Amino acid sequence: MSLFGTTSGFGTSGTSMFGSATTDNHNPMKDIEVTSSPDDSIGCLSFSPPTLPGNFLIAGSWANDVRCWEVQDSGQTIPKAQQMHTGPVLDVCWSDDGSKVFTASCDKTAKMWDLSSNQAIQIAQHDAPVKTIHWIKAPNYSCVMTGSWDKTLKFWDTRSSNPMMVLQLPERCYCADVIYPMAVVATAERGLIVYQLENQPSEFRRIESPLKHQHRCVAIFKDKQNKPTGFALGSIEGRVAIHYINPPNPAKDNFTFKCHRSNGTNTSAPQDIYAVNGIAFHPVHGTLATVGSDGRFSFWDKDARTKLKTSEQLDQPISACCFNHNGNIFAYASSYDWSKDSHVSLGRSPSPPCKGKLQDFLKWLWEFSTAFGQNPAHRKHSASVSHYGLLCSWAQKHRDMNFIIPRKKITFSCVMQPKS
Predict the structure, then answer these.
(1) How far is it, in rounded angstroms, from Cα 81 to Cα 79?
(2) 300 lies in a domain?
(3) Nearest CA to 264 among 273, 277, 256, 275?
(4) How far apart are the first and last CA of the chain?
(5) What is the C-alpha radius of gyration for the chain, rounded to an integer number of angstroms?
(6) I need a labelling partner for 32 at 20 to 30 A (CA). Which of 108, 156, 209, 340 fits?
C-alpha cells in the first residue's frame, strides 16, 4: 500500500489539489522552489524521519492548512495531500515511524493525520491556541506533547480524549523542542523550563533566561555520543544563546551571539534588529542554521563559535526552516511575519492587502499592542507571539473581510555541507 493510500490521486502530472502555483521571481540564490506553496504565511516545516523511504515535507500555514510534498532526488516537489484546521496551523511534527503527522492550531486543537488513509482526527484540546506539538517515543510509553497559550503542557495518548498528564506552565508556551529524554519549553516573560521524559515526564530544572528579550524559537543539540546535552534559544532581539544543561564550566561554555542585524556586529552605526524565527541543527555535523525577519538564513559552528555562511537577502522574512534526516536538504519558508508592522508590509505587498476596513484593523492592532507592551512605534522588532495571537483573534472575528497578505513560498537549498 502506498504511504498515501491507493486512491488519493495527489501529485499527478499537470494538476494539483492546491490550485495553480504562484510565481515569485525574487529568488536571489536560485534555490529550488516548492510548487503550490500555501496562500498565507508559513509558520512551520518538518521533514519526514529516516524510517520513511524518501523525503517528504510537511508545512503548516495561516491559511489553516497542512500540506505534504514528496521531494525527489532531482529537487522536484510533488504535492501529495493536505488537511485543514479551522484556525492557523502553528506547529507540525512526525511520528517516529513516519506513518502519521501531528498538527497544532489556533483553533485550540491538535490533530493526528494518518497518511495511509489520508484521514485526520482530533487528539487534543486546549483552552487557547496550541503553539507547539511533539511526538515522544520512550521505551515504556508513546505520546504527543502539546504546549498552549493556556499555560499548560499536556501529554496525550492518541487513543484517548483525555490527557495522560497536565503540567502547569508559569506563562504561555511560545516554543519547545523534544529529543528524548529531554524537552525544553520557553514561555512568555522569558520563562525557560527543562523536562526529563524518562519513566514519565517531570520538571527537571527552571533556568534563568540568558536572553533579555522575548523568546521566539528553541532547538536541542546533541553531544558526540548522540545524546541531548543542551539547546539553542533565539529571541526577537537578533540574538541566540547556546546553553548546556550540565556544563563543566558554565561561565565559559554557555554564551550568546548576535545575528540577523542590518550591520552585522558593527555597533558604532545604527542597526535594524530582527527576530530569530527559527533554529535547526544539522543532523550529521551538529552545526546550526538560523533564519530571521531580515530575510536571511545563516549557518554557524557553535563549537568554533564562528559563522560559516550567510545567504543573500530575500524580499520577505524567513519564517521557518528544517533539515532533512541526513542533512543534505535545507528547507526554508519565505513569509511575511508582521515584524515591520502592517503599514510597512501592506505598502510593499504584491497582492491586494485587505478587503475590508483596514483602518479599523490598524487601530485595533495599535490598541492591543500597547496593552501588551508591544507598541509598534517603540520597537522595530515588534513581531511577537502576542501579535500573532492578536492577529488570529482579529481574523476569527472578521473572516468576511478576506484579509490577504503576500504570497508565500518554500525553498530548498539542496547542497548543504556546512562543515567538513
Answers:
(1) 6
(2) no
(3) 273
(4) 40
(5) 20
(6) 340
